[in-house]
Amino acid sequence: MKNSDLVTKNDLDELKRNIVDAIEHKLQDISKDSGFEKRWLRTQELADYLSISTTQVHCLKAQGVFSCKKVGGTNFYDKEEVDAYIKSQGRD
Q1: Where do the structural domains in the chain lie, given as residue ranges?
Q2: pLDDT in tens, 11-21
């Protein structure tokens, strides 16, 4: 067996990233085609949805405006809660 035949941890990490990216792209395509709308948004997705920065999202969370669920180190925000807050503020 040659050294060039060995699989390194970096090789496996790259493969994992490629697989995860492919699955995420496929799920996005499926959700667009089906009209499915995500209920749980990551910080960046919420920032994009509200057209604000991720820092502002964190500030709103710290102020208690939005709550989140933490899963594996990632914050998830309930889009229905966000939409209800926006409606309560008279901005729709």
Answers
A1: 8-37, 38-92
A2: 999 999 999 98
